[in-house]
Amino acid sequence: MKTKVAIIGAGIVGASIARVLSKYENLEVHLIEKEADVGWGVSKANTALIHGGYDDDPDKYPMRAKLCIRGNRLWHQWVKELEIPHIWNGALIVALKDEDFDELERLLERGQRNGVPEMRIIDREELFHLEPNVNPNALGALWVPIVGQIGPIPAVIAIVENAVANGVKVHLETEVRGIKVENGEVKGIETNNGFIEADIVINAAGLYADEISKMAGIDYFEIHPRKGEYWIFDEGIPGPNHVLFPTPTPISKGVVVTTEISGHLMIGPNAQDLPKDYKDDTSTTREGLEEVWRKAQEIWPNLPPRWKVIRTFAGLRPEPTGGDFIIKAEEEVQGFINVAGIRSPGLTSAPAIGYEVRDIIERDLGIKLKEKEKWNPYRKEITHFFMLQPTQINELVKKNPAYGRIVCRCNKVSEGDVLEAIERMKFIGVKTPSVDSVKFRTKATSGTCQGSFCKVVIINLLAREYGIPPWKVTLKGKGSEIGIGDVKVLLRGEAQ
Amino acid sequence: MTAQVYKFTCIICPLSCDIEVKVENGEIKEIKGYTCPRGKEWAIEEITNPKRVVMSVIKVKNGNMPTVSVKTDRPIPKTKIPELMKLLAEIEVEAPVKVGQIILENPLGLDTKIVATREVEKA
Amino acid sequence: MNTLQYDVVVIGGGPAGLAAAVKAKEYGLNVLLLDENEYLGGILPQCIHPGFGIHYFREELTGPEFSHRFVQRVKDLKIDYFVKARVLEIKNYSDLEKIVAFTSPEGAFEVWAKAIIYATGARERHAFEIGIVGDRVAGIYTAGEAQTLMDIYGVMPGKEVVIVGSGDVGLIMARRFALEGAKVKAVIELMPYPGGLARNVMILRDFNIPLYLSHKVVEVRGKKRVEKVKVVKVDENLREIPGTEFWIECDTIIISAGLIPQVKLLTDIGVEIDPATGGPVVNDLLETTVPGIFVAGNSLLINDLVDYVAEQGELAAYGAKLFIENGGIPAEKWIKLEKGNNIRLAVPHYLSGKRDVYIYARVRKPMENVVLNFPEIDRKIRLPVVRPAEMLRIRLRKEEIAKARDKITMEVVQ
After folding, report:
1. B21, part of any domain
2. C64, C202, C384: residue with CB nearest B69
3. Which of A267, C192, C310, C373 fits a disulfide with A296 by CB distance 3.0 to 4.6 angstroms?
4. Which residues of A are annotated as catalytic?
5. CATH number, residue B7
6. Can you tell me whether residue A399 is helix, strand or coil?
7. Which residues of chain C have pLDDT under 50?
């Protein structure tokens, strides 16, 4: 008899847990997500960094300190196995004042304690050699070579695809309404799509982890949303070669200046604590964006003119009571595991969290896990036209002419790329087609023009492949439909 | 006793004169601001019987595009536009459609034709 | 690799490219026309309103009809063309040898050509570029995007609409929405005057649509779809006036905040760009600073009228012909066109005095009873009014131009 596991939340954490648990023959793993696709919560909007592990104080935040550096090491392996877009370009924590070096020394020492390799403090000359355009008044920096950047949603997608290939069942647009506990044992979860039986329930619900936990009767922590806002600029605007941090203050790691993996200069985030019931407020604000701009300028004075922005966005980080990750089997409810408050460095830690949860299942729930004989660690990325050579294009076009047609001109995404993305959406069970699902898989609509030409083409492809009229295609799940009906719907008096 | 002054920018030529028309009890009392007789005539018509060319799209069955664009072949009274639009909402044509093809003759007795302005091929 | 050879490659099958391809073929050149859409015509097939062709065809046509006439010519003349073809790179092998690399459902190709006519049009500014903050939700469209959805693909985007920007496209979309039964709740214009042609401003009166001049949309809110927008009044320096904010409820926002010439492929090979037009610096044959590359239409400068776009396409074709015949554009000297008082932009940038030329220009601010003055050549033109929304098109004769030594200034004076 297999042990049934229900993981609530298909973000980077839930996905990573699902992938690790998919290795075991005696587990039946269900991944449950309320959104139309995976990775649309906290995982969607963040700085996309694989941190070095020097930042988390092991005395105050032992879980964070332990899992961050482990996660960093695992990501080096996972990005290869799963073909996740990434770059290992290292970080510089820049000192602008003499006093900043005291803090850098503290970070260096902490990093060494946490096991971060190859860190060192560099002088002005070396800093300017690495980053000629950093603030000319900079005095030096802490150099952390193991820091990298990945695409967070592409990472979630890759991990989920691999998990599904290894037998994990994904339930999208499935919202948890209750957790069934009998005699102190978890029995399953109630959802809008019916009851899902489970012997183990893993709560990886991000911002809503406190509410899910409460459904199981466990309410010793709360999750507060902390908003971070970002600017992202047009291609061709020079950004740094490395991830640039200011010297941190006790409150914040500060505004990062970086060239994200697609080559765009990106600045952010600020940190604004929101009231507890603002968990869906990902709106950008004037004040917040101004703050980011001002702070970014302190380390990167040559910001482009403002109209060179191609997107501003905001994300929410789940701040737990106490500040450390809450990862444990709850004793009062047998089989219920909280994986809550996975704030920064959550993306970095995710793979390590996966293994941590496996250990908890074995150690605390006493389930002996049996490895599958055949477990596939690999997953192939879809075709990206922008990575192809002309001869490869011609070979692909012979198989399917769609590969020769560019849909997104800014990022050179072909119709063939989009069709592969749609196939992958169906593979993991995406039922409501959305432009965002295609965007996160192909990069279409995320360039200079922000989709003003290609969105319509993608909508038509989604409509065709899903067999629905174009107005029913969504931007980002139900409620965000592209239209209200056909062009005559209002004149016929049929619109609600 | 109702006196009203209508102000509008003439669209006859790029000069874009600002014309003022004073109307009392439904009668035009004064027109000023125009520079040419065409402008004056246009202003009078704008008050007494404004007309517009109407353009829209009509649904197409079995075409390589789901709609065809259409226009009225001459301006029709502004007041009749909503009624005409409702009528166009009910129509569907079969592909192929040729540019200049007449979709409707004399709709609502308006002495106009609804003409296709775009080509739609059979899918 | 598939290789092709032509005299001229025309990039872009909108009105400028169509006119250029037809003209070049009529000159006897071997022409290849490339377009990335499924159909030729550029944005014309979706511009279903009348107002096209009054100058060019002496007849008022709709966009699709205007386009259709040119497409028929392309087919009648048996001009080679590809649709769904995207140019990836232009290479300037030598002055008389260009390579255009493109991809299409037929495969990836390299075309060797003697001259290139670049007519790729413009793109629309989007909500992020104009500094709108708030929620990134459904219901926010650029005007052209909404137009494609409604008038090509038959999709109604929403029922309560706020239009950002009173340029022609915004006003025309206001009418389209109103005609199809949507409620257009407001048109919001940053400047103290409307941005569109007078005949389009009239749409607002026809449909009782409020126009807010000197206002801007600063924020969008909504959960999954737009629910409301925040509007604020601005002063004469376009600074927001605190305390004047108000919200308008709507489910759709149409951004019509201006067009930007698409010149990426040109800047990649070092073509000089005029910051005032956003398009390339050109001579009186519309040749860019890279010899043998000509440009026309909205990728040269943003036009109001398609007739002038077609005119530019034909001139570029003439330029390409001269270039190919002579192995380059001959001119002993180039006379620079300088921008004087109240001239925001003027094209072409260099005049030869060897041929008559149309100057396309825009003013910075509206003025009445003015003289358009070219002091160096002693030419004065009286105009009752000049407006930023209306492009000036002035013909200068070659004899006049030749009078100038090294520059001609264009200025608007009272």
Report:
1. yes
2. C64
3. A267
4. 51
5. 2.20.25
6. helix
7. none
